[in-house]
Amino acid sequence: MQKGVPRRPGTPHAAFILLCVFAAAPACAQTFAIRAGHLIDPSAGTVSENQIILVQDKKIADVGPNIAIPKDAAVINLSNEWVMPGIMDAHTHVTQSVRYFRELDHNYLVEPTGFRSLRGLRTAQILLNAGITTIRDVGNDANFAAVDLRKAIDRGWFVGPTVQTAGKIIAPFGGQSSGIPQEIGPFWRFEYYDADSPEEIRHAVRENIFYGADLIKLVADNSPYHYSVEELRAAVDETHHAGRPVAVHVQGGEAADNVIAAGVDSIEHGFFLTDSQLKRMKEKGIFLSGTDFPSGHFEAGEIANGKVMGAAIIDRLHRAYAIGVKMAFGTDIVTDYGDESRADMTWDYLAVWRAAGVPPAELLKCMTANDAELLQISKQRGAIAKGLYADIIAMPSNPLDDTEALRRVNFVMKNGAVVRKP
Ligand SMILES: [Zn+2]
Questions:
Q1: Looking at residue 303, what is its pLDDT?
Q2: 150 Cβ partners below 8 Å, 6+ apart?
């Protein structure tokens, strides 16, 4: 969609589906020895040459330069490749395809939950095939379509990335709709809980978790009114007692002050956060899940001030990095443009991080270890280390030199099963 952006030649959907069929079967239990020519540790920003990764029973059994290869192991030769943990996206909406908020309300009337689950599966598989092995889906999925997606993948019915879902978004009355005639009724509740007091928020959190939410997502400032510190603290208290993180959509201003004071786990977007707010986030260890849109996506979506928004995002990302806020990589793609896949669109975000002066090593860390910390799965995923699930990708050039290398990922392993080979 964006002019001048190199597209990965021919996303091989058909070949991918074939591999999926085989990978879903007992191949998962196979032992693999991966010869990794250049093994990247994104947490340290370092490369180890000529390593062997031993994969058994979905997990990394060992890794190092002198690992004995068992006789029954299938050897995968990535001697000429740069190998790293699978990429994560901390802010997806894989079941949704709308032209930003202009179509949000209309979408409720034409796409039932089952259809949304199927789109979610298709999108999730496209992302996995490109090397995105974990996604955190933060609402706007009809009636829990992403819960069904997660269950179907977890049961092994389909190959897909690890999915976390926020279920329904909790927001002040009206969700993210506006201008709905009173007699039409609150039809935004297809995707949102209205919750307008600490008690209502606690109830919404409990109901959402009951129906399958892995995290709680609130929208704090999409209306002329916004959540108070007291209301946000109720959400944090209730959700943390259930062992889950809280993500809050907020752009800036007093609403962001309240969100920071309440001690949430991540701010989503935060396009207009001030330096003072970013510093308070750093002190409290609150992640910025910045969804740092390329201005080209806004313009393609005919957003009136796309260029201005794009520049503001680059400025905020630069300041957040300079201040040292913990940053997660997330995209917030809700739209499909022309023949550009969601994976291609994901890689369009690389240019924004580059423009903000974030070094490649830092971005790779955000896309792996940082996202794993935010998703509370650091002990399972986010690194190539003994005992972790084998979510491994590879590409023919070094992403530490230029993150555009990610567009050329040609090997993907998920839970120790090969999804894609060079
Ligand atoms: Zn979003």
A1: 82
A2: 163, 164, 165, 212, 214
- Ligand 1: distance of its center to the CA of 129 in Å? 22
Residues of the chain with pLDDT under 70: 1-29, 100-102
Work out the number of other CB atoms within 10 angstroms of the CB of residue 387. 10
Cα–ligand 1 centroid distance for 104 (angstroms): 12
Furthest CA-CA distance within the chain? 71
In the reported structure, the alpha carbon of residue 139 is separated from the centroid of ligand 1 by a whole-number distance in angstroms of: 7
Predicted local confidence at residue 277, as pLDDT: 98
Cβ proximity of 377 and 71 under 8 Å: no
The beta-strand segments (E) located in 189-289 are 192-194, 216-219, 246-250, 266-269, 287-289
Question: 233 alpha carbon to ligand 1 midpoint, in Å?
Answer: 22
What is the per-residue pLDDT across 380-416, written as a single tens digit (0 to 9) for each? 999 999 999 999 999 999 999 999 999 999 999 999 9
Per DSSP (E only), the strands in 265-382 are 266-269, 287-289, 327-328
Cβ neighbours around 324 below 10 Å, total: 11
Is there a contact between 98 and 152 (Cβ–Cβ < 8 Å)?
Answer: no
CB contact at 8 A, 154 and 24: no
Please give the distance, rounded to the nearest whole angstrom, from the Cα atom of residue 146 to the centre of ligand 1. 14
Beta bridge partners of 216: 246
CB-CB neighbours of 183 under 10 Å: 5
**Alpha carbon of 93 to ligand 1 centroid (Å):** 7
Task: Decide: helix, strand or coil at residue 175.
Answer: coil
Q: Which residues pair with 87 in a beta bridge?
A: 132
Residue 18 CA, ligand 1 centroid: distance in Å: 32
CA of 91 relative to ligand 1 center, distance in Å: 6
How many whole angstroms from 138 Cα to the centroid of ligand 1?
6
Q: Are 169 and 158 in contact (CB under 8 A)?
A: no
Rounded CA-CA distance 31/136 in Å is: 29
CB 100 within 8 A of CB 152: no
Compute the distance from residue 52 Cα to the ligand 1 centre, in Å: 38
d(CA 135, CA 146): 11
Compute, in angstroms, the gap from residue 160 CA to the centroid of ligand 1: 20
Ramachandran category for residue 359: left, alpha or beta (phi over 0 → left; psi -120 to 50 → alpha): beta
Backbone angles phi, psi at 266, to 5 degrees: -150, 145
Give the distance (Å) from ligand 1 centre to CA of residue 333. Answer: 7
Would you give the distance in Å from CA 323 to the centre of its chain? 23
How far away, in angstroms, is 330 Cα from ligand 1 center? 9
